[in-house]
Amino acid sequence: MKTFEKFFRHRVSYEKIDKYVNLVLKTLDPDDEVYVHYDEDNNSQFVRIEVLDRVLH
Fold it and tell me: For position 56, what pLDDT does the model report?
């Protein structure tokens, strides 16, 4: 399992957050299972991307 985390200190547009998520997703295998968690406070935003590696049987 891989985890990517990014903390944005001030209010950032959703386009910039989407750009970050898309850059991370480009580096991953398309068969991996991905969970994106987003949390927002007053003046900050937090993004966590959890990647579960695929299992070959």
Answer: 58
